[in-house]
Records
---
Amino acid sequence: MALRSVARNLLRQGAVAQHLSKHPGRKTYVADNHHVEWDFKGQRQIVPVGHRVPIVAVDAFVAPNVVLAGAVDVQDRATVWYGSVLRGDLNRIVVGFSSSVGDKCVLHAVSTAPTGLSAETLIGKYCTIGSFSTLRSCTVEDEAVVGQRCVLLEGSLVEMNSMLGSGSLLPPGRRVPAGELWAGNPARFVRMLTNDEIMSIPKLADGLRELAQEHAQEFLPYGTAYLEVEKLREKHLLSM
Amino acid sequence: KYDYPPLVCNVSWLGLLSVLITILWLASSTPLTVANLFYNNLIIDHFTYFCQVFLLVSTASTIVMCLGYFKEESLNAFESIILILLSTCSMLFMISAYDLIAMYLAIELQSLCFYVIAASKRDSEFSTEAGLKYFILGAFSSGILLFGCSMIYGFTGVTNFEELAKIFTGYEITLFGAQSSGIFMGILFIAVGFLFKITAVPFHMWAPDVYEGSPTLVTAFFSIAPKISILANMVRVFIYSFYDPTWQQLFFFCSIASMILGALAAMAQNKVKRLLAYSSIGHVGYLFIGFSCGTIEGIQSLLIGVFIYVLMTINVFAIVLALRQNRFKYIADLGALAKTNPILAITLSITMFSYAGIPPLAGFCSKFYLFFAALGCGAYLLALIGVVTSVISCFYYIRFVKIMYFDTPKKWILYKP
């Protein structure tokens, strides 16, 4: 079995090489049986990259279809909602205490920052990142709110107690000063936040946290998927 | 063969198991009568029984505390666990010592183990400094103690406590008379050596430095276990053998001084371990209240006080060891603990309230009994100073709670559970 597959593979590689030598520059697609189109394990949630292992605090809620890759540090009581991707393979990503990253967010980190700021993606405490946002190597300080569909490009900085309106884009190296509301593409100053709004930001984060608690209660520390896998294996008469 | 594994965790689990087995063995063999072993060198009675079981419980709790500690510190020193067990063994001997020589040997064995584990973190200069300080001062105090023993022996010709008790019954130590002055000196030296060992005030200089320098686990062990054993030994020596009001004045003074210094010096501390060192000095002062009465109630309240003090200290050090990430050194680092770890914050505040002696808690009971005993034997000044210093020390214990619940610090420290 194994020998045969190896031989087949070698033959196929030879065929591919012949094909490439015949038609240079043409892309070829050859199906090989090492590529599976259905992985029974699904997407792993925590993907170490090299020596950089994502750290998730014990009371943080990370949704099951989130991908944490590389140096990601999800601190206590933080929540990462469904479908987000936190890819800290080039630099560090920190999701701070009790802050939440909404659904379908993408948090990258570039290797070097164009500005003097660190190229890490840092999210402070009690932050709320709206859904569908993209954050690349930006710094969001404590108690800031980033609305839905925001794009924070590298080296941008959202300071304490400030808000970004929905759908705004923060160009590289832009700074949103403390206690202001910015919106637009590229983001511009709209108004100063009132004190009540500033005081309500941690409450918003806490509310999201409580919601995440309800979600987290639906998950067990160990899934039961392995039982299904064993059943499948028995069904297909595969040796364990 | 096994790729040089770090044996710390395995050894500590085994050590814990051995301590528990020893507890079972001791607790199951309840002493019905007073038994003298080894030619009257050791004694087993109810007092030693209680103290030994309690000491073993405290050692077990210390080892439980250190299970996570070594892993996080990546301190591969399994010998420290073995030394803890050795020193526990020597403290068991110390509690049941019934002879000056047995007492001294047990104290010396315990101290030697302590010198080594104080300096067990070889790559930190604080730890080596602490070990050195502790070694020098401990050796000095052992020398003083030994000199006192030799004086006693030289002027009585007896080292056994029972014989000493027979000699000293109705023996008024007066400074007039040739032999009694020597005996007086001997008792004084023994008392000073003991006070060194238990960090009572005039001889407390090393304690804060050693407590701060040595690894936190070792600090916990220093502030929990030796207190029990040395106090038991002191009760044995000074209540049973040299029962006399003259040296009680010395303890009276030490008690007052310890309470005052423990209250006042801890106010100015910013580092947690130093603060705990000073607070333990103050608590030794409170315990000496019961000691210097010399009445039955005094001894009872002393034992109650030791029991409660040790439980509280175990609690505090367990919390400090749990918060040990990120170089948790200053009290200000406790900020926002109420938000990050609310249950831990509640536990720590309850423990601190108990230290301070807030009524519904155990620390209040112990202090209350101690003051009650002091009033019962007519030491009104002692009780008064105790109450005043306990009110003063409320200040810095409650400062912990205030920092945890009301301060918003600059840097938040998140602790791993």
Note: The helical segments of chain A are 2-22, 195-216, 225-235.
---
Amino acid sequence: MILSKLYTRSTRRGSKFFRLSLPINGRPSCRNIHFTYYPDTRTVRTGEVKEMNMFQAINNALHLFLEKDKTSVFFGEDVEFGGVFRCSIGLKDRFGQSRVFNTPLCEQGIVGFGIGLANVGITAIAEIQFADYIFPAFDQLVNEAAKCRYRSGGQFDCGKLTVRAPCGAVGHGALYHSQSPEAYFAHTPGLRVVVPRGPVQAKGLLLSCIEEQDPCIFFEPKILYRTAIDTVSLDYYKLPLEKAEIVREGDAITLIGWGTQIHVLLETADLVQNELGASCEVIDLCSILPWDAETVCNSVKKTGRVIVSHEAPLSQGFGSEIAATIQEECFLSLEAPIGRVTGWDTPFPHVHEPFYLPDKWRCFESIKNTLEY
Amino acid sequence: MISNIVSKFIFRRTIVLYRCKIRMESNFCYTNELSFINKMYSPVIPTYRVLNNEYIQKSPTVQEIEMDTNLLVKMYTTMISLNIIDTMLYECQRQGRISFYMTNFGEEAVQIGSAAALLSDDIVYAQYRESGILLWRGLNFSDLINQCYGNCKDKNKGRQMPVHYGSKEYKFVTLSSPLTTQLPQAVGAAYGLKQMQKNLCIVCYFGEGAASEGDAHAALNFAATLICPVIFICRNNQYAISTPIQQQYGGDGIAARGPAYGINTIRVDGNDIIAMYNATKFAREYTIQEKKPVLIEAMTYRIGHHSTSDNSTMYRSNQEINSHKNKIPIVLFKKYLEQFNLWDMNKEENFINFNKKTVLEAITIAEKHKIPSWEDLFTDVYYKMPNHISHPVVEETGWLV
């Protein structure tokens, strides 16, 4: 009887999977990728180059840094065997277990441990398995890491700490494998928050974060780990923090985003160009805190219209900070209200992900309204 | 009779378990008996002590405890100094001269006994009731007072509340108010020392209340699995503000947790400075040699209020406090020193008078110092001041200057 029950169950489940893999309403699969990756065309590459996806570029950066700084350590949950996203592959074999090691499963411990290492002058690169699980370490990051230098009058600091965490939508991550928690940390003086949009930026910005003398949180959009493939320099290079990048120049409207959303915005910019004949200026913020208000405001002063877009929910999302600053700095240049196209004010859903994300259609709609205002 | 049977039973059980373990050479063994594991398996951890409170005449001689008389006297005078500064700064707060204070009454031995057993380069991560360590290491009264006043001589640049001391020079990591956050940090720092191949250890202090925080679990587990040279010293003073230990934990204190994490543990009479010294020295030797963590639980009693913002008679009786006063570390240690003619009333009077004068002078000077420059509100947030901080500063300067 049990056997027959199991049998029916498995066939039922099997048939469900089968149905899902067939096109439903023209969609080939429920695990859609909501963007097209736009390779980087602006960063200068020197020396030998190689085609890499984002996890390989991060891995390359870690190899280069651990080689450069002989006392530095890399640790987190499951990093020894290469990490659940393969970012730390080969590190343990090359640098030994005393420098690349697994920790117990405890996020507050991981960050606290990293602060201690940094206190005594060791470069500590910590990995939180998913940005969704960074909250147990919120106290250590916000009350401790961020305030260490300030509260001791500069006697002690933990500037040598970098926390890496995969973030953002991945197609089917639901509530706890999809979050973009940058805004929580953007409210914390003393921290640096950085998000790359592809392999070239991931490597350059990560190396900058590691070398920067402030505690940094490096959020890596996990959907880009394998989908974002680019030509990356094998050299040790850094990209500037606190600096936004104008990814595409335009004059009709400024589109601001970071991480995966940059690719959504680039695709929308193409759509706007084709459908409406307007050229969009796309800005990758790169650093969320401290952020480059100057580049953003200069662009808005030029275009007079602006859309901010991020995956995280609207209310108190980092878009609010950008919008408020723009209206303060560019009041006389604004020709339309500042638009915000973001995730809804709900937890991140599972099957409704395609309706939740601020995809190119929602961005297009908002741009169209702003241009017609 | 019954207890005899019970103890025999436990003994036999333990032997069986022990044999199983040996035979199987692994971390687990099997049993056919369906029963819970409970307190019977872990007898109460005894408290190590040297100076005997009830039978003071039986105290060991100085030779027996293998200690230098100068060291003993310095330990005592530091305890007294801590008492003096506590009394005077407490009064300062009552008069509204400083905003806040926390005294160390009753816990002088835990701090100074352990500090005396450490090397001055061992790094200390503390909670807030460990000012005695700084005094032992040579920090001036005026440094402590300046911090409480937040004047321009304060190393923290007047940014933190009083008692949040820190000194790079004396290897005392600046305190912060969030409880227990220093524990996993201490473990990381200890791993760092091991990584740099230094023959030093980290010493980390915390209260029994703080041990309930998640960070304590993180720290003990990390220290054990990542094998870090750190000595955890728990000041079990029976209270976390108003919460007595009965409401803090259900097991045999903090010490009983150590073995569960695989950490060598010792429980010490925290009112006995010699016991505290010996235990810390013993722990330090082990930690340095094996590069492994140690847990010390020091049993003591918080004689004073939790802080100047607390009236402890709201939740405990005067009678209870008084019953502990004859067991306080200073009294206990003074009796011991007097017994061997290392200290007397005359010396005590002179020492107290001289130090009271010094503290008073330091307070007078501290009050005259100005607060740090307004610019110090903005510096040190980051290594370099970012635009969004400096921009408003530049704008406001016209108004501020």
Note: Chain A touches chain B through 51 residues (CB under 8 Å).
---
Amino acid sequence: MPNMSLKKNEMPVQDPQVRNKNFKEVALGYTKEQAIDEAQRCLHCKTRNCVAGCPVRIDIPDFIKEVAEGNFEEAYQIIAKSSSLPAVCGRVCPQESQCEGKCVRGIKGEPVGIGRLERFVADYHNENAKEHAVKPQSNGHKVAIIGSGPSGLTCAGDLAKLGYEVTVFEALHLAGGVLVYGIPEFRLPKSIVQKEIDGLKELGVKVETNMVIGKVLSIDELKEEYGFEAVFIGSGAGLPKFMNIPGENLKGVYSANEFLTRVNLMKAYEEDADTPIKQSKKVAVVGGGNVAMDAARSALRLGAEEVYIIYRRSREELPARAEEVEHAEEEGIIFKFLTNPVEILADENRFVGGIRCVEMELGEPDASGRRRPIVKEGSEFEIPVDCVIMALGTSPNPLIKNTTEGLDTQKWGGIIVEEETGLTSREGIYAGGDAVTGAATVILAMGAGKTAAQAIDEYIKAK
Amino acid sequence: MYKIIKKIELNPTVTRMDIEAPLVAKKAEPGQFIILRTDEEGERIPLTIADYDREAGIVTIIFQKVGATTEKLGHLEEGEFIQDFVGPLGTASELEGLKKVAVVGGGVGSAIAYPIAKKLHGLGAEVHSIVGFRGKDLVILEEDFDKVSDKFVRMSDDGTWGTKGLVTNALKELIESGEKYDEVIAIGPLIMMKFVAALTKEYGIKTVVSMNPIMVDGTGMCGGCRLTVGGETKFACVDGPDFDGHQVDFDEAMERGSMYKPFEQHKREETCNLFAKEVQ
């Protein structure tokens, strides 16, 4: 008899007034009992809409059935067939618009906590599994992956399972892409990312760090000199945007990428870290996406007393996940909606002293369907802050494009690919994730990595 | 991990290291840089490629002990390893086609000016090197410059080496004496490059400077190294580090460079104390 409770089992979390001062994970995860109870809410409906809502098509009801019966390792094996990074996805996927958004239990009441169950299963496996993954028999074919973010790691994992000899080339000193430099420890502990990458290494995936492809080696060299038969570009969208307003180069203005890289990758929040970060009392974060939430919540944890999110549209248009916005509010982040910066003001030492903003109102919907914000005349006001973080989005770095002849890109830098395969304008070169779409989600990047892995397998077999 | 093949103390604060990094050596060009991290807990710092040997797979760096990381780096010995060493990064200096160039180096910046003078000399250009140090004890690469320069002017603040005075004095003298340069390339402290650029602007001589802002990744993903050049924001790690000296906002660059000064000072003292304890 299924559990007919209309509500999800709540996720235990750290108290907001405690967690806003530390970098430990906010959500604490289900206990075995909570997981089994939640799993029993799944009706095992025939439509299986949840599976269609998952970009990597995990057999969701099947793994949930195993959880309901207490067979956690069996549940893990079902997920592992489709996903290389379940502990990550269970934490950072926007489930409300994917698997859980399609769950029939969500029509009347809350959907099954699929993400929470996936997370539980992956964590259980990582803590308890004794058997290590076995490296599959090599098929003798070599594939290069550029970038070790979610799309690259997924593509690498899938190809390794098929017997390919896979090498991942990463520009930074640690693998993981946005999972290590972007998403903070309090949402995604780095030890979890590391475990998932170790899992890939057990499958035989080689990871070469400090390899800026386009500088150290070009894609053509990888193909011609190093014998890689196919290449997957998963280099992401890491080029930050600025507003081009006066004062943007003052001391104390960061791109969210710089701020988060210092905090997450370089661990600037640790007391004895070698990498500095500015100690600020009042911080303004400009933007309304998940990156803005991450930057704001990190600034708070570094000791800021007031942290503002400045967003030019209204609450309804916030692109960040609902759960992240709620967490940010609980922790004390102040939201300034319908507000847009026009200038960053200097103090007497040429550090940031304030931010001058205008109020906005929403006009007619634009081409993207969102109502366009218009400046309210005479509405200028100032907020005294000593740090500004620009979280306005990112675009693909032009390095790969500029060093790979014949690789077609969009005007804004995204690599042009065939949607069904991820094939670029060059034979044997595939691409996926943010490098193609511009900044999107972890799970969409994983889906693209998966698609490309399948296409690469077919391409090499057909040669 | 990247092995330290050779280490030479060039003067009391400046050290030269040959690092085994074959892939970097294969592609390196004058004007480019590397980012390194001494150890697992270390920060990432940019250093210019001072020389390279493609066959031996070696990249030479020259650094001044100015803070915690360069202090730590200076304590590493031959045979030991550097955790991370990535490059070559940035855009190579454009040197082709130049016939007569004044290369101006100041302090440890001379280590960056030298490979440029060497490459220009190799390309058959007439090279006039004007190099300045605070005093005789701090001189580096004297013989190296001598070998690749058609004219070599030595300057020092205190007169203990060459002529007493600033590199700008020497440059002005050469220009006034009728030397016609296609280009002036200036590398050294920001204040020196600012004054060289101000001088050459008067004479309308194209001037290239090598900027050295704060960097984190060095690949164009954070904008920590941004500068204003000709009124536009540029990222030194990908658009530079070479820029038109007449277009750079040096005052802003100097300000931005001082952003973490108290932190850096504190960190350096901490590191020095740590090494002092080990010695005891």
Note: Chain A touches chain B through 35 residues (CB under 8 Å).
---
Amino acid sequence: MTVRKNQADLTGTEKRAFVDALLELKRSGRYDSFVTTHNAFIMGDTDSGDRVGHRSPSFLPWHRRFLIEFEQALQSVDPSVALPYWDWTADRTPAASLWAADFLGGSGRSRDGQVVDGPFAAAAGGWGISIRVDGRGYLRRTLGAGGRQLPTRAEVDTVLAMSTYDMPPWNSASDGFRNHLEGWRGVNLHNRVHVWVGGQMATGVSPNDPVFWLHHAFIDKLWTEWQALHPDSPYLPGTGTANVVDLHDTMRPWNDVTPADMLDHTPHYTYDRAA
Amino acid sequence: MSRFTRRQALSAVGAAAGLAVIGAAPAVGSARDRAPKTPATPHAHAASGAFDEVYLGRRIQGAPGHGGGHHDHHGGGWTVHIDGEELHLMRNADGTWISVITHYEPLSTPRAAARAAVRELQGAALVPLDLS
């Protein structure tokens, strides 16, 4: 059974296994297919048109399915690997062990933002950036640049307290839990973390940085925490909504999975601690 | 999902032909070392909000509307170029803007999104749109 752990609690052996599986997916070309899929959706999802992966109610079930698929790819390399999550309310500085050279490596150098330590640095040779929106072929980060701050636990709790899953117009203008968690409104949780990391994480090709998966694994865990707090609050909308994935509509690109299929994570993985 | 080919993307750039060709002149190779300059045509498009300026050594141009297609839908009717290459732009429901370079941080205008992209690029060239 897959148990997703807080990244801060991983052993050295677990970190090494996770990194090695990432590098193997990259080498085989499978990793970049995930980057391509994410960018296609982020550029295709619009507030006034079809929207599936982002700025819509299916942001959460879509990313849950996307992470499951990615985790299964990792496990095809090493069955012992599970996706860790990054609780950025707790591990909130560039000095966190997450960014050490034995795990994801640190921030980029000031000249060009290039990450120069850890297994994903260009010099290590295993992490070229080929699915890209500009000419730079190396991983970049600007952790906390400009004095930006990651969300606090108190800010997370204000969002978890919102009892309605999502609301019309079901996009970046919506009130409710989903859009506040995604960050287009209010204190801004998910979007702000992408911006705090900087580099490719701030762009449409954000899965180029392996921290993408740890960030979204925590967003996914927050959805579970919200469900535990609001057991009577359903996924919305229920039916008949134009341009939006209703509860029993299938989601692209898989076309065989609905939000209803993704509401319970426990057939796929559990967590190291209670939600 | 909306899809468009590289050829369509290039023809979209071509639809803004006059501006795009001129925009290619300040070559990417020299962009890094150029100091900020005053706008190239500061008064040309004031009414529409269109812009055409050199920002941190890069030619940035934006205008509402072009020949049609993909970006009339995604870009809220705007097309923006950096040194002649189209920047994928998106308008949010509240009227703010993001680009593929700064996709999680809404800004108030297409020009602000273009300038943010220039700062983020640090002299690097945009890769031509290609989702096919």
Note: Chain A has a mean pLDDT of 97.
